[in-house]
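for the record, two folds in this file. i put them one after another cuz i was lazy. first one right below, seq on top, C-alpha cells after. the second one comes after a little note so u can tell where it starts
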Amino acid sequence: LSAVRYTGVSGAPFRQEQHRRAVPPGQEETVTMTVTYAEYGPHVGDQDALKLTVAGAVEETGQVVAKELRVRLHTPELTLTLLAPAVVGQETPVQVVFQNPLPETLSGATLRMEGAGISCPKPFQM
C-alpha cells in the first residue's frame, strides 16, 4: 500500500502484508485488510490517492498474477444555505457547514467565498 500523488508518482510503500493460502479447485479465498487514517494520513496530501498492489504466485506452476487498485480519497463537502433572500446590493447571510470526518481535530482552516458580484473575497479564519 502506498500513496500516489496527483501527478501519478507513487510514494514508498508504507504497509506490506504477506499471506499464504491453499485454495481448493473451483473455490475462492478472501483476504481482508483494514487501513486506519492514523496509518495512511501521514503519507497522503490533499489530492492524493492510495494504491493497493496485490501479487500472487502459484507454487505448482510458477504462474504470477497481479492487480492494482487506486482508491481516490474524497474530501468532505461543504453545505451552503442562504439564511435570507439574496438582494442585489445588500449583504446576504450564508450558513456554511463542514463536518470533520477525521479522528483528530482540524485547526488553521480558512474559508474563502468567491462569486459573481463579490468584489473582494474575504478569508474567514476558523
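(here's the note) second protein begins now
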Amino acid sequence: TYAPKLILLDISDINCIQDVAKEILNCYGCVDILINNASMKVKGAVQSISLELDKKIMDANYFGPITLTKAILPNMISRRTGQIVLINSIQGKIGIPFRAAYAASKHAAAGFFDCLRAEMEEFGISVSTVNPTFICSYHRQPAPGNWEASIWK
C-alpha cells in the first residue's frame, strides 16, 4: 500500500497537466484506474456567453480530461492493463436550452472516449463513460447580467 498524496490540479489549466501526470507516475510508478470527474458549466443564452467562457468550458470538460488521459495512457499501454472512467453528463447525449457550451463539451468528451474505448481494447485497457442525470453541485451566484460569473464547478 502507498501513503496517500494530495496533488492539486486545475483541470482547465492544460499546461500543467503533463507535469502533474509525471509527478503521479514518479511517485507511484503507475495508475491503475483514472477517473476523470472534474467539470465546469455555465447557464445562459448562447448570445450572452462570451467565446472566452465557451473556451474555458471546453478546456475543463474536454481538453482537460483528454490531456490527462493521454499523459497517463502510455504507462497503461506499456503495462497492458488499466481502467479509464469519464464521469460525463446526460447532456453529453442530449442538449437543453441555456447550456450550449456545457452540452457541446460533454458531447465532445463522449465522442473522444467512445473512440478511445475501441482503440484500447487490444491493450486490455477498459474505458467507461458514466452519464448521470442532473446533480446538485457547487454554484457561485452571479450578479445580474454577469454571465461570466455564472460558472458551476
